[in-house]
Design brief:
Layout (H helix, E strand, L loop, with lengths): L1 H21 L3 H16 L7 E5 L7 H12 L6 E5 L5 H12 L11 H17 L3 H24 L4 H25 L4 E4 L7 E2 L10 H12 L9 E5 L2 E4 L5 E3 L5 H11 L4 E6 L20 E3 H9 L10 H7 L3 E6 L8 E4 L19 E6 L9 H11 L4 E6 L3 E6 L11 E2 L2 E2 L1
Parallel strand pairs: 1-2, 1-8, 2-5, 3-5, 4-6, 8-10, 9-11
Antiparallel strand pairs: 6-7, 10-11, 12-14, 13-14, 15-16
Helix pairs in contact: 1-2, 4-5, 4-7, 5-6, 5-7, 6-7, 8-9, 9-11, 10-11
Length: 429
């Protein structure tokens, strides 16, 4: 019976390949390629790679088709696909929240960014021919989004918790649309919301930290393909988690879909995660500031983390944490607009003998603090007291430089104090 199934499968593969070679329509060739890939996918028992695609890679229906084609062009892989929101959807959702604070409830439905979001997602559903049930889901999500904005307008309050709920709609819609498009063209696919598969975080809304001890085993169990079950491409929302205490939706900070991808790779103990961007990998500098930049072919986990923290836009600053935990998982940065480019491979170690300067980065909006005191001279415990103030106020320090009588440090603008005040005890210093 096993031999018969293999013979039937091979016959189908041969027939599809034969038809593809003779089809004149590019569209039909694309569909058949996806169907061929679907048959090949059935040969993989478990997910063996994570693909992550950012907002620019899925900005419209045409780009979603291109992403599907990229997935189908590697039929030897059974991927888990992590998606960001479409294009500038996250920015428009945040804009909706700010506008809702100064808009009456009867005018919420006509907010310009809300109309743009609605038109983008519904037109994408139409162009891609998604399943009616999925289109109904997208319409319901848009309705829920509008109700949330009405609530913000009524309460005249936009908390960090509300912001996280607000921006979550982008990923929740894009993943549903994309998974449906794959299914409609012969590729078995299932959509997952990251909070529902066990991505557990702290309750720090807007920039939550992952609780790895709970998250890794939960994600592993949720995404493990069941023996004897259908092999499916798993499509997961990036950027999102569930707060451990409140169970509300949280976000991992801007660019957090990179972290979602490496987190899933670590949970499934994979050898490689591929992060698909709109550039040819990690570059030697910011191409918007420096002409003729070049891709960096290799990086270590530590190098990638340092570059991300200090201004490189290609990866989320914490994206290397799961890779460092696994010690054996590579992260490859690829270009969805130039799939032939080699990209950048990030691994535990590399040959550093010929390396002088890897990359130059710039970090904007940094707060610099200078502390000058003659009491530092020859004293112990002074630095400990200074850093205790930052610790008590949960302020993250980036770079430190000291001399005998002075201390200079920069503060992370994403994790600074509120209202510009540093408190110690009940007093403002």
């Amino acid at each position: 019976m096993s031999n018969l199934r293999c013979t039937v499968r091979q016959t189908l593969v041969n027939e599809i390949a034969h038809l593809t070679a003779h089809m004149c329509s590019v569209r039909l060739m694309h569909l058949l390629a996806c169907q061929l890939a679907a048959l090949q996918l059935c040969c993989s028992l478990q997910v063996n790679v994570v693909y992550k695609f950012g907002g620019s890679s899925v900005r419209d229906a045409e780009r979603m088709r291109e992403v599907a084609d990229i997935i189908c062009s590697f039929p030897e892989n059974l991927p888990c696909v992590v998606l960001s929101a479409m294009g500038k959807t996250t920015n428009m959702l945040l804009e909706c929240g700010e506008l809702a604070l100064c808009t009456s409830i009867d005018k919420i439905p006509s907010l310009k960014p809300l109309e743009t979001i609605r038109d983008l997602h519904l037109s994408t559903c139409q162009v891609l021919g998604v399943e009616p049930a999925v289109q109904a889901e997208v319409e319901q999500l848009l309705s829920n989004l509008q109700q949330l904005l009405i609530g913000i307008s009524i309460m005249q309050d936009l908390t960090n918790r509300a912001r996280d709920s607000l921006v979550s709609f982008g990923e929740r819609m894009s993943t549903r649309i994309f998974a449906s498009y794959l299914r409609q063209h012969g590729v078995p696919a299932q959509q997952f919301d990251a909070p529902e598969i066990g991505v557990t975080t702290t309750d720090d809304f807007g920039n939550a930290d992952i609780i790895y001890e709970q998250t890794l085993p939960a994600v592993r169990a949720a995404l493990r393909q069941q023996p004897g079950g259908p092999r499916q491409v798993q499509v997961v929302t990036g950027f999102l988690g569930k707060a451990m205490l409140s169970s509300a939706i949280t976000t991992l900070g801007r660019g957090g879909s990179d972290l979602t991808a490496t987190l899933i790779g670590a949970a499934l103990e994979l050898k490689e995660v591929q992060v698909w961007k709109d550039v040819d990998g990690v570059l030697t500098s910011d191409p918007r500031m420096v002409p003729n930049t070049l891709p960096v072919t290799e990086l270590t986990y530590d190098e990638a983390t340092e570059l991300a923290f200090f201004g490189a836009q290609v990866l989320h600053p914490l994206a290397m944490q799961p890779a460092i935990r696994s010690e054996s998982m590579d992260v490859r940065v690829k270009n969805s607009y130039n799939r032939q480019a080699a990209g950048t491979i990030i691994s535990k170690s590399r040959d550093m003998r010929c390396s002088l300067v890897t990359s130059l980065v710039v970090k904007n909006n940094v707060t610099l603090v200078d502390i000058v005191s003659s009491r530092m001279l020859g004293q112990y415990g002074f630095l400990a007291n200074v850093f205790e103030v930052f610790r008590a106020n949960q302020v993250s320090v980036d770079v430190v430089a000291t001399s005998e009588v002075s201390l200079s440090l920069s503060l992370d603008p994403k994790k600074s104090w509120s209202d510009g005040e540093v408190c110690r005890g009940n007093q403002v210093r």
